Amino acid sequence: MRAFLAGLATALLLATPAISTVQAAEEPLKVCLDEDLPPLSAHHRGKPDTGFDVALAQTIADRLGRPLKIQWFESKLDEDSSPSLEANALLSDGRCSLVGGYALTKDSLVAPGVKTAKLPDFDGASRDDHRRRIPIGVLVPSAPYIYSPMTVVLGPKARDRKVAGIGDLAGLRIGIESGTLSDAILMTFDKGKLIDDITHLVPGRSDLLGEIERGEFDATLLDLRRFDAYRASHPDTKIAASGYYYPIGANRGYVALDSDKALLDAVNKTLSDLQSAGKIAELGQTAGLTYLAPREPIILGDVWLKILNR
């Protein structure tokens, strides 16, 4: 009898890892995505979820043998919002294990200087969720999977202008949104050389690309992703891409908490395999995204210092 019980105990111990593996495989891969960042990710009631990050997350989940669960959240454009703290709060509250489409910069990955943070508005949030402060951890990035630069976009009257650098915008009517990175780049270029050509618009209250389309401005500098989204929703647009990319841009990848490094290792291995097979570029093309492979530096340093030193 004693030998039987010993054998049974051994069998149960050997079976435990297998059971745990099955349970892990059945757990959804929970990924947080911005609900309004086309063509990276988009979630609108009554419409299918779309975007490059949606397709990539599904592909990774499939490769890991896990179902995918997306937690949609809204990122506000205001002075009080902090994308890094919002991502940290979502992860620390267990809303997801990964936040996708995350800009990999030194500032966005710095250890938080506070112990708690508020959650952003997310799909399914209650009134109490809006009031809660979440004890937060430390963010760790995955390998990057896409490079996001800024590009010069030209209006109908200037679409044939050759642009090899910011200085080639001199003499054009430039529209730019106040307080943005693009604003800082253009206003400080060559000690203010373009200031007299610039008209400022209020972010969120103006239609920058629409005004360029109507010929009110000749050019702007903005995130390439944003132009891709406009082009997808306006297939007959007369706005043209200049083909010029400002030399300071950020890679995008996933972030997780430093306590979830095993998951990041698995995700990094999958990203490497997909990148080698050309699958990530293919997903970008299908989503209507101008796909650019990640590049050095993997994590962008002090953006403002780089701009001022140019």
From TrEMBL:
Residues of the signal peptide: 1-24
Does Signal appear among the keywords? yes
InterPro entries in UniProt: Solute-binding_3/MltF_N
The UniProt keywords, alphabetically, are:
Signal
Q: Does Signal appear among the keywords?
A: yes
Residues annotated as domain Solute-binding protein family 3/N-terminal? 28-295
Q: Which PANTHER family match?
A: ARGININE-BINDING EXTRACELLULAR PROTEIN ARTP, MEMBRANE-BOUND LYTIC MUREIN TRANSGLYCOSYLASE F
What's the protein name? ABC transporter substrate-binding protein
- What is the protein's species of origin? Bradyrhizobium macuxiense
